[in-house]
Write a structure and sequence with these properties.
The complex is a heterodimer of chains A (301) and B (494). Chain A is built from ten helices and 17 strands. Chain A has helices at residues 22-27, 68-74, 110-122, 142-148, 168-177, 189-199, 235-238, 249-256, 260-292, 294-300, and strands at 2-9, 14-20, 33-37, 45-48, 51-53, 58-64, 81-82, 84-89, 100-106, 126-133, 151-156, 163-164, 182-186, 206-209, 225-228, 231-234, 241-243. The radius of gyration of chain A is 22 Å and the shape is globular. Chain A starts with a strand and ends with a helix. Chain B has 494 residues and is of the alpha/beta class. Chain B has helices at residues 3-8, 32-35, 48-55, 65-69, 76-84, 88-96, 102-108, 115-118, 121-124, 130-144, 167-178, 195-198, 207-219, 236-243, 272-281, 307-318, 338-347, 414-418, 450-453, 458-476, 484-492, and strands at 159-163, 182-186, 223-225, 246-249, 255-256, 269-271, 299-303, 322-326, 350-352, 355-362, 368-381, 387-391, 397-400, 403-406, 410-411, 445-447. Chain B has a five-stranded parallel beta sheet, with helices on both faces. Chain B is globular and about 65 Å long. The chains are: A alpha/beta (301), B alpha/beta (494). Chain A binds chain B through residues 23-24, 27, 37, 41-44, 68-69, 83-89, 215-223, 225-227, 232, 237, 251, 254-255, 257-259, 262-263, 265-266, 269, and chain B through 188-190, 198, 226-229, 232-234, 254-256, 258, 264-265, 267-268, 270-271, 273-274, 277-278, 282-283, 287-295, 365-366, 413-415. Bound molecules: flavin-adenine dinucleotide (FAD) (2 copies), iron/sulfur cluster (2 copies) and FE2/S2 (inorganic) cluster.
C-alpha cells in the first residue's frame, strides 16, 4: 500500500496529491510517469510525475478528474492509501543546454511541464513558459512556474486571467522572433497537435508528451501504440515524449476514444454506488437525528 | 505416510506386471455449451478411481522412454506407480523432487510432444495420460493439505535478486531459498506469476493455483516485491552494487509482435498480450465490477495458431463473440496443445485455415469493420521442417469483424536489457546465456526462461530456473559452475 500524504484541490476537477513512494522518488527524472491502481478491482492509470522529493521519498501528481478512477482518486486524501504505484516509467526528457526553450503547458499539462522547465533552467537554458487554461479557475502552479522560468505568459480562453487567447498565439509570436531553439508542449491531444503545427513552418524542434491509453506501461501489451513518422511506437517505453512534427495526432485521439461507452457505463456505476453510499450515510445520520428528537418529528406529522 | 509410500517410495517394482489393455481414461470436462459461457476450468480432473485405473496402464518400463521426453526428467514410472497403489501423497513427494509446480505442468505442458510422445504404449494404443496424473497428484495435495514441507538449509548470509516472477523466476527463487540464500523477486506487474497470471486464462489454469504456488515460494522465505520495474525503478547495476551478490534475470519474452499490415492501429485491434492481460490480470471479463474495460466485439478474428491464439479465441468466445481463428497453415501445423485445439473446436470457434491477413479495414470512426485475408497453399518445407504457406494470388476475401486479436508471437522486451551495462544480447535482443550454466557475459548475472530462449514453455522455464539456482549457488560458493564430470558429459554428448 502507498500512503497519500495530502491532497490540494485546485478546482472542482483538478487536484494535487503527494504520495509516499520512496523507490520511485529515488529513481525518477523529469518527463517520466507512474501507473497507479487505487484498489485491486481498479484499473491501472498513468499519471505524469509533476514533482518529486528524493529526501522525503514522495511523488507529486496533478490530476484532472474525468472518469471512474480519477473521480475515485479525488475522494482520497491524507491518511488514505492506494494499492499500487509503479514507476518511474517512460524515457526521461533529454535535458541539454540548447539556448532558449519555450515550455507550453495546457490544462492539466501545466503540471508535467513544470519539472521539465525546472531541469531545462538548471541546465542553463533561457526558459519561456506559457500556461494555458480555459479559464482562471483552472490555472495552478503559476508561482512555481514563475520560479523556474525567465518569462511567463498566461493565457485563458475567456480572458479571465492573463491574455485572452489560445496557447498557439503567443507561441507563434515567439517563433517569429527567431530566437527559439526548442519547444515543449504538453496538454490535451488537440493542444499538442496545434502547437506542433504552429512551430513546424519555423523548423523548431517540438517535443510533445503523449497520453495514450495504457495497461502495463512496460512495453508488454502494445495498447499504447501510436504512429510516429509512419512507424508504430509504444508510448510507455519509447516515449512518452516524441517529435511533435512526426506524430499522427488524429490516430492518437481516435485511439483515446476507444472505450468511451464503457467509460461512461463505468462512471455511472461508480457514481451511483457513491451516491448510494452518500444516501446511506445521510440516512443513518438522519435516523440518528430522528432517534434523538422523536418528539420534534412527531410534532411535524 | 502410508505403508505404500514407505515400500514404494522411489523404488520401482523389479518385474513389469502383466497389464490388461485398457483404453486411456478420458478427462472429465464441463460440457462445451456450458463452458463456452463461463471462465471456470474446462477440465475437472480425474477422481481417485480414474487415477488408479489410468496409472495401472503404465508398463513401469525399466528404461522409461517417457522420462527422456520430459525436459526436467521427472521419474514418471515412480510417481505413476505410487498413484496406482493409492498413495497420491507419495506421488507428490516424488514429483516435487524434480518439478516445483506439478499443478501447473500437469495442466499446461504440451505432453503430446514431450513425455507422452515417447511413451511406449503410444506405439500400439494411446500413451499413459502422464500430465493428467501429475495434475491429479497435485490437486490431491491441495485438497488434503501439503504433504511435505521442504527442508531449508541454514542461512548462507548471501543475497540473490531475481527479476520476474514467471515460472523461471519463481522456480529459481524457491530453489535458492531452500539452499539458505536470502532471495528477493522483483516483479514489474502488481501481481506475481508472469504469463501464468496475465496470459493463460482461468479456464485453463485457475489463478488460485498460481497464487498458491507464489505463496509456497514465499513460505520458503522469498520476498516478492511487486511494482518494481527493473531497468526503471532499480537497475541491475544498482542491484549488484547495493543489495545482491548475484542476479537471475527471468523477465520473459513480453513484447508483442504485429504483422506490419495496413490497419493494425485501428480501434478494436489488440495484441493477444493486451487482450489477455485486460481479461485475466485486470479481470475485464467482470467489467464494470472491475474497472478495466475490454472491447468484446460481436465478431472477432484471432490471428495465429499457437496456445496464445487459442487462449485469446476462447476468451473472446466466453465474452460473447462469434470467433474466427485465422491461421496460414493447416491444423496439423498448429503449435498449440492438441487438447486446446479440440476444446476450441468443440466450443464453436470457426477455423479459417490456410488464410493469411493482408489488411484490416476500418470505418469512418477509426474502428475495425473487416479483415481481408488471402488463401494460402502449402509449398516446400522451410527451415523449421513445416511446409511453407504460399499465397494464392487473387483469392483475397473479406470477413466482417469488429475486433481483431493479433497473436503472431512475441520478442524480447528491451526495457531491462537496454538499461543494463555489459550484457551481451543476440541480434533479436534475447540475453545470451551459457547453455549449461546460464551464465551471462556479466559477472554474477545469470539468465533463463523466455528472455533467453524466446517464447517457449512453462516447463522449460522451470528447468532454467533450477539450472540458474544451481549455478548461482556454485558461483556464490566460489566453485566452478560445472563439475569435471559435467564438463566431460557435455564434451561426450553428440
Ligand atoms: C503518460 C501519461 C501521462 C498522463 N499524465 C496525466 C496527468 O499528469 N494528469 C492527468 O490528469 N491525467 C494524465 N494522463 C491521463 C490519465 O491517465 C487519464 O485521464 C486517466 O487514465 C483517466 O482514467 P479514468 O478512469 O478517470 O477515466 P476514464 O473514464 O477511464 O477515461 C477518460 C479519459 O481518459 C483516457 N484514459 C482512460 N484510461 C486510460 C488509461 N489506462 N491510460 C491513459 N488514458 C486513459 C481515455 O482516453 C478517456 O479519454 C496521462 C496519461 C498518460 C498516458
Ligand atoms: C497466453 C499464453 C499461453 C501459453 N500457454 C502455454 C501452455 O499451454 N503450455 C506451456 O508450456 N507454455 C505456454 N505458454 C508459454 C509460457 O507461459 C512461457 O514460456 C513461460 O511463462 C515463460 O516463463 P518465464 O518465467 O521465462 O517468463 P514469464 O512467464 O513471461 O514471466 C516474466 C515475468 O517478468 C516480469 N518482468 C518483465 N520485465 C520486467 C522488469 N523489467 N522488471 C521486473 N519484472 C519484469 C513480467 O511482468 C513477468 O511477470 C503460454 C504463453 C502465453 C502468453
Ligand atoms: S513436467 Fe510436463 S513433460 Fe514432464 S512429465 Fe510432467 S507433464 Fe510431462
Ligand atoms: S513409457 Fe509409458 S508405459 Fe513406459 S514408464 Fe513411461 S509412461 Fe509408463
Ligand atoms: S502500456 Fe502496454 S505496451 Fe505500453
Amino acid at each position: 500500500m502507498y500512503k497519500i500524504l495530502g491532497r490540494v484541490d485546485y478546482s472542482a476537477d483538478v487536484f494535487m496529491q503527494v504520495i509516499e513512494a520512496p523507490a520511485v522518488a529515488a529513481a525518477c527524472q523529469p518527463g517520466q510517469f507512474i501507473i497507479l491502481m487505487i484498489h485491486q478491482e481498479g484499473e491501472r492509470i498513468p499519471l505524469t510525475i509533476a514533482d518529486y522529493d528524493r529526501e522525503s521519498g514522495t511523488i507529486t501528481i496533478v490530476v484532472q478528474a474525468v472518469g471512474t478512477s480519477t473521480r475515485h482518486l479525488q475522494t482520497l486524501g491524507k491518511g488514505d492509501s492506494i494499492s499500487n504505484f509503479i514507476g518511474p516509467l517512460g524515457m526521461p526528457s533529454e535535458i541539454e543546454n540548447v539556448g532558449t526553450v519555450v515550455c507550453a503547458g495546457g490544462g492539466v499539462g501545466m503540471a508535467p511541464i513544470y519539472p521539465i522547465a525546472r531541469a531545462l533552467k538548471e541546465a542553463g537554458n533561457k526558459v519561456i513558459a506559457i500556461m494555458a487554461a480555459r479559464n482562471e479557475s483552472l490555472l495552478f502552479w503559476e508561482d512555481k512556474m514563475r520560479e523556474v522560468s525567465d518569462e511567463l505568459i498566461v493565457t485563458t480562453d475567456n480572458g479571465s486571467r492573463g491574455r485572452k487567447s489560445l496557447v498557439t498565439e503567443p507561441l507563434k509570436e515567439l517563433c517569429e522572433t527567431g530566437d527559439v531553439n526548442l519547444v515543449y508542449a504538453i496538454g490535451p491531444g488537440v493542444m499538442m497537435k496545434f502547437c506542433a503545427r504552429t512551430t513546424e513552418p519555423y523548423g523548431i524542434k517540438t517535443f510533445v508528451s503523449l497520453n495514450s491509453i495504457m495497461v502495463d506501461g512496460t512495453g508488454m501489451c502494445g495498447g499504447c501504440r501510436v504512429s510516429v513518422g509512419g512507424e508504430t511506437r509504444f508510448v510507455c517505453v519509447d516515449g512518452p515524449e516524441f517529435d511533435g512534427h512526426q506524430v499522427d495526432f488524429d490516430l492518437l485521439m481516435s485511439r483515446q476514444r476507444q472505450y468511451r461507452s464503457q467509460e461512461k457505463e463505468s462512471l455511472d456505476t461508480y457514481l451511483s454506488k457513491a451516491a448510494v453510499t452518500k444516501v446511506a450515510l445521510a440516512n443513518s445520520a438522519a435516523s440518528n437525528a430522528a432517534a434523538c428528537s422523536a418528539a420534534a418529528v412527531a410534532a411535524h406529522v | 505416510m502410508s505403508e505404500a509410500t514407505k515400500t514404494g517410495h522411489g523404488n520401482r517394482p523389479q518385474r513389469q506386471p502383466k497389464r490388461p489393455k485398457l483404453p486411456r481414461t478420458a478427462m472429465p470436462c464441463q460440457p462445451a455449451e456450458r463452458r463456452a459461457t463461463n471462465f471456470e476450468e474446462v477440465t475437472t480432473g480425474y477422481d481417485d478411481e480414474m487415477a488408479v485405473i489410468e496409472a495401472s496402464r503404465c508398463l513401469l518400463c525399466k528404461k522409461p522412454k517417457c522420462v527422456d521426453g520430459c525436459p526436467v526428467g521427472i521419474d514418471i514410472p515412480a510417481f505413476v506407480r505410487l498413484i496406482e497403489v493409492g498413495d497420491p501423497a507419495g506421488a507428490i513427494v516424488k514429483l516435487k523432487e524434480t518439478t516445483s509446480f506439478p499443478a501447473v505442468c500437469g495442466r499446461v505442458c504440451p505432453q503430446e510432444e514431450q513425455c507422452e510422445a515417447l511413451c511406449v504404449l503410444g506405439n500400439k494404443q494411446e500413451p499413459v495420460a502422464i500430465g493428467r496424473l501429475e495434475r491429479y497428484a497435485s490437486d490431491w495435495e491441495t485438497a488434503h493439505g501439503a504433504s511435505v514441507r521442504p527442508r531449508t538449509a541454514p542461512k548462507q548470509g548471501k543475497s540473490v535478486g531475481v527479476v520476474g516472477s514467471g515460472p523461471a523466476g519463481l522456480t529459481c527463487a524457491g530453489e535458492l531459498a531452500k539452499m539458505g540464500y536470502d532471495v528477493t523477486i522483483y516483479e514489474a506487474l502488481h501481481k506475481p506469476g508472469g504469463v501464468l497470471v496475465y496470459g493463460i486464462p482461468e479456464f485453463r489454469l485457475p489463478q488460485a493455483i498460481v497464487a498458491r504456488e507464489c505463496e509456497y515460494v514465499e513460505s520458503l522465505g522469498v520476498q516478492i516485491k511487486t511494482d518494481y520495474v527493473i531497468g526503471r525503478t532499480l537497475t541491475v547495476d544498482q542491484m549488484l552494487a547495493d543489495c545482491h551478490d548475484a542476479i537471475f534475470l527471468a523477465n520473459g519474452a513480453g513484447l508483442p509482435s504485429f504483422m506490419d499490415i495496413p490497419g493494425e492501429n485501428l480501434n478494436g485491434v489488440y495484441s493477444a498480450n493486451e487482450f489477455l492481460t485486460r481479461s485475466n490480470l485486470m479481470k475485464a471479463y467482470r467489467f464494470p465490477e472491475y474497472d478495466t474495460p475490454i472491447a468484446v466485439g460481436r465478431r472477432v478474428a484471432v490471428i495465429g495458431g499457437g496456445n496464445v491464439a487459442m487462449d485469446s479465441a476462447r476468451t473472446a468466445l466466453r465474452l460473447g463473440a462469434e470467433v474466427h481463428l485465422i491461421y496460414r497453415r493447416t491444423r496439423d501445423e498448429m503449435p498449440a496443445r492438441s487438447e486446446e485445439i479440440d476444446h476450441a473446436l468443440e466450443e464453436g470457434i470457426v477455423f479459417d485455415l490456410l488464410s493469411n491477413p493482408t489488411q484490416i479495414i476500418g470505418d469512418a470512426d477509426g474502428w475495425v469493420n473487416a479483415i481481408e485475408v488471402i488463401d494460402m497453399e502449402l509449398g516446400e518445407p522451410d527451415a523449421s521442417g513445416r511446409r511453407r504457406p504460399v499465397p494464392l494470388e487473387g483469392s483475397e476475401r473479406r470477413i466482417p469483424v469488429d475486433v481483431v486479436i493479433v497473436s503472431v508471437g512475441t520478442n524480447a522486451n528491451p526495457l531491462l536489457t537496454r538499461n543494463t551495462t555489459g550484457l551481451d544480447l543476440t541480434n533479436r535482443g534475447n540475453i545470451i546465456a551459457d547453455e549449461h550454466t546460464l551464465a551471462t557475459s556479466k559477472e554474477g548475472v545469470f539468465a533463463g526462461g523466455d528472455i533467453v530462449t524466446g517464447a517457449a514453455t512453462v516447463i522449460l522455464a522451470m528447468g532454467a530456473g533450477k539450472t540458474g539456482a544451481r549455478s548461482i549457488d556454485r558461483f556464490l560458493q566460489g566453485r566452478p559452475l560445472l563439475t569435471d564430470q559435467e564438463e566431460e558429459a557435455i564434451a561426450a554428448a553428440p
